[in-house]
Amino acid sequence: MDAAIIRERLRELREAMQKEGIDFYLIPSSDYHNSEYAAPFFQTRAYFSGFTGSNGTLLVSKEEAGLWTDGRYFVQAAAQLKDTGITMYKMMVAGEPTILEYLKERMPEGSVLGFDGMTLAAETGVEYAKELQEKKIKFRYDKDLAAEIWKDRPPLPCTEAFVLPEEISGASYLIKSTEVRAKMKEYGTEVLFLAKLDDICWLTNLRAADVACNPVMLSYLLLTMEHAYLFVQPKAVTEEVRAYCRENGITVMDYAKTLAHMSGYAPTGDMLFDRSNVSYTVFTVLRQITLNRGHKLINRPNPTLLLKACKNETELRHTRETYLADSAVLTEFLYWAKHHAGREHLSETDIAEKIDGMRAQMDGFLDLSFDTIAGYGANGAIVHYKPEKETAAKAEEKGFLLVDSGGNFKTGTTDVTRTIALGELTEEMKKHFTLVCAAMLRLANAVFPYGCTGRNLDTYARAPLWAEGLDYQHGTGHGIGFVLNVHEGPQNIRWKYGQAQPEVALEAGMLVSDEPGIYIEGSHGIRTENILEVREWKETEQGRFLCFHPLTYAPIDPDAIDLAYLTAEDREALNRYHEQVYECIAPRLADEKIREWLKEVTRPL
Question: What fold, for 162-307?
Fold first, then answer.
């Protein structure tokens, strides 16, 4: 974007700030619910800065402007901010101030910090209020200044909601709400306020498409021991949904009037909410209404979180079938990529569009579960790389192609990564690929006592890499939703933990990804990802034990395997997995050539 346009927009923003008596104005990247993807309506930071990366915060004062982003976007941000008058600040880099440090240093005592409190996380707002208290900083969180300046702003996303039938969800709203209310009673609360979109959709068995790649609807839910109030956009409510809500005792209310209703609401007892999943504005309203009635506002993880994470048998049955169908399509794609990507010098976007198009033809397809990552060569070493048509690399008959992709279907949510050898590889590349393969299989074959968290299990995957002085700077696994968000908690698998990161015991019925990797900047990236189902293994005199069961069945490229880096146990595990792949997937392949190819690539090593 032309830097002059950004400078003009900043001038208009500063005029609006002066009019409202705001000295510093903060613009985060989130929507009203801290969703992973922000719709065009919420791209305020991009509008005023020109920076289009997914993570960034803009801070504007009378004379200065700064944008904070992470290492994925340093190069992109530097280019997009050039000549705009905005300074880039690198997050998590020594010597660079955080936003809070910047504010504490630059804001004069008694000055005013403004932001749209509906898009700032409550945790962040509370921290800022505490840290800036000494300087008597005032907050103006009631103003979305973009509303007056952004004339052609896209509309708030609103898609028609639909009911996920009980034969798919496996449990009715009445059953789920009874379980949630039991938890509320256990916590000593009478009211629950939900703002987390996938929690609301899980509880109500409703789905929509208001957030890209997440089949959810913009909504809030107020649940008491007797009533339920669903705040949703009127245009999203079909006759089917309205009748469904009426039958289940759910009162439908206008999403736009949520704050007005809640401001006048008088809770009958202590209120449960999860501060990490509400905006600062919503938090201040909840705090005030409970205080007015002499009740407590109890900050605890949503009770829906763990209930949602443990899939019921119906969800698991549909998920297993969805992954088999998805794995068959992925196998067809792997065959295509091996025979066409490098030989025809296809671009990364061509490759991403191919796998996306193949998934879109599958029964029950709703949307991608995230933006497809297709990174060739050095781009594979960028963990969250997203190819763009203008800058996409073209594949050659050498090196690696990393493809991370998935879909949302009416019967499940998928996620899988495969790294494909397109031709000649160096010995180092083969070594790294083989170590990652061993890492993935060792975690997949782990048996562990009940009570283990992901932190206990993470070293199964990292041990082969650590033994070679290698590591990867991301978690090994995340939870997976059911016709919901592909990134779901509270379960995860990672060795680094902070106070803000949840740590829960793995339970039977949970789904987790298993995705170790190696990333060599400027050379290559490798990640091999399967999705695992946590299952009961057996009970012994020493207690109850759990294990993993693979949901993903797709070949791991034997052309990149160097047997010198596999133990006998690793080799046996790979051969056993490939035997299962052929047994499960071959009958689903209509093309005899692809079946023969699959037989060859899953042969025992």
Answer: Creatine Amidinohydrolase; Chain A, domain 1 (3.40.350)
